[in-house]
Protein backbone atom coordinates (compact mmCIF):
# COMPACT_ATOMS: atom_id res chain seq x y z
CA UNK A 1 0.00 0.00 0.00
CA UNK A 2 1.33 3.45 -0.80
CA UNK A 3 -0.03 6.93 -0.79
CA UNK A 4 0.08 8.78 -4.08
CA UNK A 5 2.26 11.90 -4.19
CA UNK A 6 0.30 15.13 -4.10
CA UNK A 7 1.51 18.58 -5.19
CA UNK A 8 2.45 21.19 -2.61
CA UNK A 9 -0.57 23.38 -1.89
CA UNK A 10 -0.55 27.07 -2.82
CA UNK A 11 -0.89 27.88 0.89
CA UNK A 12 2.54 26.39 1.60
CA UNK A 13 3.88 23.02 2.72
CA UNK A 14 1.40 20.22 3.26
CA UNK A 15 -0.69 20.80 6.36
CA UNK A 16 0.52 24.37 6.95
CA UNK A 17 -2.85 25.89 6.08
CA UNK A 18 -4.39 23.99 9.00
CA UNK A 19 -1.98 25.53 11.50
CA UNK A 20 -2.81 29.22 11.09
CA UNK A 21 -5.69 31.63 10.61
CA UNK A 22 -9.11 31.69 12.32
CA UNK A 23 -10.76 28.52 13.55
CA UNK A 24 -12.73 26.67 10.88
CA UNK A 25 -15.37 23.95 10.79
CA UNK A 26 -13.74 20.52 11.02
CA UNK A 27 -10.74 21.70 13.02
CA UNK A 28 -9.72 20.28 16.37
CA UNK A 29 -9.63 22.83 19.19
CA UNK A 30 -8.22 22.43 22.67
CA UNK A 31 -10.39 23.96 25.40
CA UNK A 32 -8.79 24.77 28.77
CA UNK A 33 -10.98 25.89 31.68
CA UNK A 34 -10.07 28.07 34.69
CA UNK A 35 -8.80 25.03 36.60
CA UNK A 36 -6.47 23.97 33.79
CA UNK A 37 -8.58 21.02 32.68
CA UNK A 38 -8.37 20.36 28.96
CA UNK A 39 -10.80 18.94 26.43
CA UNK A 40 -10.31 18.59 22.69
CA UNK A 41 -13.31 19.04 20.39
CA UNK A 42 -13.88 19.01 16.65
CA UNK A 43 -15.73 22.09 15.44
CA UNK A 44 -19.00 21.46 13.62
CA UNK A 45 -21.83 23.62 12.32
CA UNK A 46 -24.50 23.66 15.02
CA UNK A 47 -22.27 21.76 17.43
CA UNK A 48 -21.96 22.34 21.16
CA UNK A 49 -19.61 21.30 23.97
CA UNK A 50 -21.64 20.19 27.01
CA UNK A 51 -20.53 19.85 30.64
CA UNK A 52 -22.34 19.82 33.98
CA UNK A 53 -21.55 23.55 34.08
CA UNK A 54 -23.41 24.65 30.98
CA UNK A 55 -22.58 24.33 27.31
CA UNK A 56 -20.49 26.16 24.75
CA UNK A 57 -21.77 26.57 21.19
CA UNK A 58 -19.16 25.88 18.53
CA UNK A 59 -20.33 29.04 16.77
CA UNK A 60 -18.68 31.00 19.62
CA UNK A 61 -15.32 29.61 18.46
CA UNK A 62 -15.64 29.33 14.66
CA UNK A 63 -14.12 32.38 12.99
CA UNK A 64 -12.19 33.51 16.07
CA UNK A 65 -8.37 33.64 16.07
CA UNK A 66 -6.22 30.99 17.71
CA UNK A 67 -5.67 31.87 21.37
CA UNK A 68 -9.11 33.39 22.03
CA UNK A 69 -11.05 33.16 25.29
CA UNK A 70 -14.76 32.27 25.07
CA UNK A 71 -17.57 32.02 27.63
CA UNK A 72 -20.19 29.29 27.91
CA UNK A 73 -23.87 29.66 28.81
CA UNK A 74 -23.13 29.52 32.57
CA UNK A 75 -20.42 32.18 32.45
CA UNK A 76 -17.43 29.82 32.60
CA UNK A 77 -14.49 30.78 30.41
CA UNK A 78 -12.36 28.60 28.15
CA UNK A 79 -9.04 29.29 26.48
CA UNK A 80 -9.08 28.05 22.87
CA UNK A 81 -5.95 26.85 21.12
CA UNK A 82 -5.05 24.54 18.27
CA UNK A 83 -3.56 21.33 19.69
CA UNK A 84 0.20 21.06 19.27
CA UNK A 85 1.80 18.00 17.69
CA UNK A 86 2.56 16.59 21.15
CA UNK A 87 -1.09 16.99 22.15
CA UNK A 88 -2.29 15.24 18.99
CA UNK A 89 0.15 12.33 19.32
CA UNK A 90 -0.78 11.58 22.91
CA UNK A 91 -4.53 11.63 22.21
CA UNK A 92 -4.79 10.17 18.70
CA UNK A 93 -6.27 6.70 17.97
CA UNK A 94 -3.63 4.07 18.58
CA UNK A 95 -3.22 0.34 18.21
CA UNK A 96 0.32 0.25 19.61
CA UNK A 97 2.32 2.33 22.06
CA UNK A 98 3.40 5.59 20.45
CA UNK A 99 6.90 7.05 20.32
CA UNK A 100 6.69 9.84 22.90
CA UNK A 101 7.31 13.42 21.74
CA UNK A 102 10.50 13.61 23.82
CA UNK A 103 11.94 10.63 21.93
CA UNK A 104 10.67 11.77 18.51
CA UNK A 105 12.42 15.11 19.05
CA UNK A 106 15.66 13.33 19.95
CA UNK A 107 15.39 11.13 16.86
CA UNK A 108 14.86 14.10 14.54
CA UNK A 109 17.84 15.98 15.98
CA UNK A 110 20.34 13.23 16.77
CA UNK A 111 19.73 11.39 13.49
CA UNK A 112 19.97 14.74 11.66
CA UNK A 113 16.71 14.32 9.73
CA UNK A 114 16.96 17.25 7.32
CA UNK A 115 14.59 18.77 4.73
CA UNK A 116 14.78 16.75 1.52
CA UNK A 117 16.30 13.69 3.20
CA UNK A 118 15.57 10.16 1.99
CA UNK A 119 14.46 8.23 5.08
CA UNK A 120 13.17 4.72 5.67
CA UNK A 121 11.53 3.59 8.89
CA UNK A 122 10.17 0.32 10.19
CA UNK A 123 7.70 -0.37 12.95
CA UNK A 124 5.14 2.31 12.04
CA UNK A 125 2.75 1.49 14.88
CA UNK A 126 0.18 4.27 15.09
CA UNK A 127 2.14 6.78 12.99
CA UNK A 128 3.38 9.10 15.74
CA UNK A 129 7.02 9.04 14.62
CA UNK A 130 6.02 9.08 10.94
CA UNK A 131 4.31 12.44 11.49
CA UNK A 132 7.48 13.95 13.00
CA UNK A 133 9.66 12.49 10.25
CA UNK A 134 7.37 13.89 7.54
CA UNK A 135 7.51 17.34 9.12
CA UNK A 136 11.30 17.12 9.13
CA UNK A 137 11.85 15.91 5.55
CA UNK A 138 9.18 18.24 4.12
CA UNK A 139 7.28 17.96 0.85
CA UNK A 140 10.55 17.67 -1.08
CA UNK A 141 11.83 14.78 1.03
CA UNK A 142 11.06 11.08 1.05
CA UNK A 143 9.82 8.80 3.81
CA UNK A 144 9.20 5.13 3.12
CA UNK A 145 7.58 3.38 6.08
CA UNK A 146 7.42 -0.40 6.47
CA UNK A 147 4.88 -2.14 8.68
CA UNK A 148 4.22 -5.85 9.08
CA UNK A 149 0.52 -5.57 9.96
CA UNK A 150 -2.10 -4.03 7.71
CA UNK A 151 -4.18 -2.92 10.70
CA UNK A 152 -1.34 -0.80 12.10
CA UNK A 153 -0.73 0.68 8.66
CA UNK A 154 -4.41 1.67 8.42
CA UNK A 155 -4.27 3.36 11.83
CA UNK A 156 -1.07 5.20 10.92
CA UNK A 157 -2.46 6.36 7.59
CA UNK A 158 -5.59 7.68 9.26
CA UNK A 159 -3.59 9.63 11.84
CA UNK A 160 -1.12 11.02 9.30
CA UNK A 161 -3.86 12.18 6.94
CA UNK A 162 -5.81 13.70 9.83
CA UNK A 163 -3.00 15.96 10.99
CA UNK A 164 -1.87 16.93 7.46
CA UNK A 165 -5.39 17.29 6.07
CA UNK A 166 -4.85 14.56 3.47
CA UNK A 167 -2.08 12.40 1.95
CA UNK A 168 1.46 13.70 2.40
CA UNK A 169 3.45 13.91 -0.87
CA UNK A 170 6.65 12.57 0.71
CA UNK A 171 5.11 9.49 2.33
CA UNK A 172 4.96 5.93 1.10
CA UNK A 173 3.94 2.98 3.28
CA UNK A 174 4.50 -0.69 2.47
CA UNK A 175 3.37 -3.90 4.15
CA UNK A 176 5.89 -6.62 4.93
CA UNK A 177 9.12 -7.41 6.74
CA UNK A 178 11.57 -4.54 6.54
CA UNK A 179 14.65 -6.66 5.82
CA UNK A 180 12.95 -8.16 2.76
CA UNK A 181 10.86 -5.31 1.39
CA UNK A 182 13.40 -2.48 1.72
CA UNK A 183 15.84 -4.31 -0.56
CA UNK A 184 13.14 -4.52 -3.24
CA UNK A 185 12.10 -0.88 -2.90
CA UNK A 186 15.36 1.04 -2.38
CA UNK A 187 18.57 1.10 -4.40
CA UNK A 188 21.83 0.22 -2.62
CA UNK A 189 23.39 3.28 -1.00
CA UNK A 190 20.38 5.51 -1.79
CA UNK A 191 19.02 6.15 1.72
CA UNK A 192 20.24 8.96 3.99
CA UNK A 193 18.71 7.80 7.27
CA UNK A 194 17.24 4.57 8.68
CA UNK A 195 14.94 4.67 11.73
CA UNK A 196 13.93 1.36 13.31
CA UNK A 197 11.37 0.90 16.09
CA UNK A 198 11.11 -2.87 16.35
CA UNK A 199 11.72 -5.87 18.56
CA UNK A 200 14.94 -7.17 16.99
CA UNK A 201 16.71 -4.52 14.91
CA UNK A 202 19.89 -6.63 14.68
CA UNK A 203 18.04 -8.89 12.24
CA UNK A 204 18.09 -5.97 9.77
CA UNK A 205 21.86 -5.42 9.72
CA UNK A 206 22.45 -6.55 6.14
CA UNK A 207 19.43 -4.67 4.79
CA UNK A 208 20.42 -1.44 6.56
CA UNK A 209 24.05 -1.71 5.45
CA UNK A 210 22.92 -2.28 1.85
CA UNK A 211 20.53 0.65 1.42
CA UNK A 212 22.27 3.21 3.67
CA UNK A 213 24.63 5.66 2.00
CA UNK A 214 28.20 6.06 3.34
CA UNK A 215 28.02 8.42 6.30
CA UNK A 216 24.29 7.79 6.64
CA UNK A 217 22.73 7.48 10.10
CA UNK A 218 21.03 4.41 11.53
CA UNK A 219 19.01 5.09 14.70
CA UNK A 220 17.18 2.45 16.73
CA UNK A 221 14.46 2.82 19.34
CA UNK A 222 14.34 -0.14 21.73
CA UNK A 223 12.52 -0.64 25.02
CA UNK A 224 14.81 -2.83 27.14
CA UNK A 225 18.47 -2.91 28.16
CA UNK A 226 18.86 -6.43 26.77
CA UNK A 227 17.63 -5.30 23.34
CA UNK A 228 20.01 -2.36 23.53
CA UNK A 229 22.98 -4.58 24.35
CA UNK A 230 22.21 -7.14 21.67
CA UNK A 231 21.81 -4.48 18.98
CA UNK A 232 25.03 -2.70 19.95
CA UNK A 233 27.06 -5.92 19.93
CA UNK A 234 25.63 -6.95 16.56
CA UNK A 235 26.58 -3.58 15.05
CA UNK A 236 30.12 -3.87 16.44
CA UNK A 237 30.53 -7.41 15.15
CA UNK A 238 29.26 -6.48 11.68
CA UNK A 239 32.14 -4.13 10.92
CA UNK A 240 30.34 -1.81 8.50
CA UNK A 241 29.33 0.85 11.02
CA UNK A 242 30.91 3.27 13.45
CA UNK A 243 30.98 2.56 17.18
CA UNK A 244 27.34 2.80 18.37
CA UNK A 245 26.23 5.40 20.91
CA UNK A 246 23.24 4.98 23.22
CA UNK A 247 21.23 7.17 25.58
CA UNK A 248 17.79 7.79 27.04
CA UNK A 249 15.98 10.99 27.98
CA UNK A 250 13.67 11.76 30.87
CA UNK A 251 11.44 14.82 31.19
CA UNK A 252 10.38 16.35 34.49
CA UNK A 253 7.96 19.27 34.65
CA UNK A 254 8.06 22.00 37.28
CA UNK A 255 5.30 23.43 39.46
CA UNK A 256 5.23 27.23 39.14
CA UNK A 257 2.99 29.12 41.54
CA UNK A 258 4.30 32.20 43.34
CA UNK A 259 7.25 31.18 45.51
CA UNK A 260 6.23 27.51 45.33
CA UNK A 261 8.64 26.57 42.55
CA UNK A 262 9.53 22.90 42.69
CA UNK A 263 9.71 19.78 40.53
CA UNK A 264 6.43 18.07 39.73
CA UNK A 265 5.78 14.81 41.56
CA UNK A 266 5.33 12.96 38.27
CA UNK A 267 7.62 12.80 35.28
CA UNK A 268 7.97 11.07 31.92
CA UNK A 269 10.71 8.62 32.86
CA UNK A 270 11.99 5.70 30.82
CA UNK A 271 10.16 5.13 27.58
CA UNK A 272 12.94 3.68 25.43
CA UNK A 273 16.62 3.72 24.55
CA UNK A 274 18.04 5.34 21.44
CA UNK A 275 21.08 3.81 19.74
CA UNK A 276 22.79 5.40 16.77
CA UNK A 277 25.58 4.35 14.39
CA UNK A 278 26.77 5.58 11.01
CA UNK A 279 27.56 3.67 7.83
CA UNK A 280 31.22 3.48 6.92
CA UNK A 281 32.44 3.65 3.34
CA UNK A 282 32.60 0.31 1.57
CA UNK A 283 35.72 -1.64 2.47
CA UNK A 284 36.71 0.58 5.38
CA UNK A 285 37.60 -1.11 8.66
CA UNK A 286 36.01 0.44 11.77
CA UNK A 287 38.19 1.79 14.54
CA UNK A 288 38.32 -0.73 17.36
CA UNK A 289 37.88 0.49 20.91
CA UNK A 290 40.48 -0.78 23.31
CA UNK A 291 39.65 -2.79 26.44
CA UNK A 292 36.25 -3.80 25.19
CA UNK A 293 35.15 -7.29 26.21
CA UNK A 294 33.41 -9.38 23.60
CA UNK A 295 29.86 -10.26 24.61
CA UNK A 296 28.52 -13.74 23.99
CA UNK A 297 24.93 -14.93 23.71
CA UNK A 298 23.68 -18.45 24.26
CA UNK A 299 21.23 -20.17 21.93
CA UNK A 300 18.58 -19.69 24.62
CA UNK A 301 19.22 -15.93 24.55
CA UNK A 302 18.88 -15.80 20.78
CA UNK A 303 15.58 -17.67 20.77
CA UNK A 304 14.01 -15.65 23.58
CA UNK A 305 12.98 -12.60 21.55
CA UNK A 306 9.21 -12.66 21.41
CA UNK A 307 6.84 -9.76 22.10
CA UNK A 308 5.58 -11.51 25.22
CA UNK A 309 9.06 -12.12 26.64
CA UNK A 310 9.95 -8.41 26.61
CA UNK A 311 6.65 -7.33 28.10
CA UNK A 312 4.76 -6.17 25.00
CA UNK A 313 0.99 -6.43 25.28
CA UNK A 314 -0.76 -8.43 22.60
CA UNK A 315 -3.37 -6.36 20.77
CA UNK A 316 -6.36 -8.25 19.39
CA UNK A 317 -7.29 -8.00 15.71
CA UNK A 318 -10.78 -6.84 16.74
CA UNK A 319 -9.40 -3.89 18.71
CA UNK A 320 -7.03 -2.94 15.89
CA UNK A 321 -9.91 -2.86 13.40
CA UNK A 322 -11.89 -0.60 15.74
CA UNK A 323 -8.96 1.79 16.25
CA UNK A 324 -8.34 1.84 12.50
CA UNK A 325 -11.96 2.92 11.96
CA UNK A 326 -11.50 5.70 14.54
CA UNK A 327 -8.29 6.89 12.86
CA UNK A 328 -9.91 6.94 9.43
CA UNK A 329 -12.92 8.79 10.83
CA UNK A 330 -10.54 11.56 11.87
CA UNK A 331 -9.62 12.22 8.23
CA UNK A 332 -13.13 13.46 7.54
CA UNK A 333 -13.06 15.70 10.61
CA UNK A 334 -9.78 17.44 9.72
Automatic annotation (TrEMBL):
It comes from the Bacteria. Coiled coil: none annotated. Residues 1-11 have a biased composition (Polar residues). This is tRNA (Adenine-N1)-methyltransferase. Residues 90-254 form the tRNA (adenine(58)-N(1))-methyltransferase catalytic subunit TRM61 C-terminal domain. Residues 1-23 are annotated as: Disordered. One of its GO terms (molecular function) is tRNA (adenine(58)-N1)-methyltransferase activity. The keyword Transferase applies. Keywords: Methyltransferase, S-adenosyl-L-methionine, Transferase, tRNA processing. It comes from Sinomonas puerhi. One of its GO terms (cellular component) is tRNA (m1A) methyltransferase complex. It holds the Pfam family GCD14. GO terms for biological process: tRNA methylation.
Amino acid sequence: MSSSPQPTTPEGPTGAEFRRGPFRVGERVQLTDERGRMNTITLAEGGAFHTHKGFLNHSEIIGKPDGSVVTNTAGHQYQTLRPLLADFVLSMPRGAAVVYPKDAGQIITMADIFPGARVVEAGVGSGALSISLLRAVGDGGYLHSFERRQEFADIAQGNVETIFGGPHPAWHISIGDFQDEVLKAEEPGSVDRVVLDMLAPWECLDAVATVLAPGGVWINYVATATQLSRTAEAIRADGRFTEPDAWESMVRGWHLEGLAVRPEHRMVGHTGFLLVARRLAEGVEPLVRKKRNKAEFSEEDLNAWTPESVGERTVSDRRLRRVARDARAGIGEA
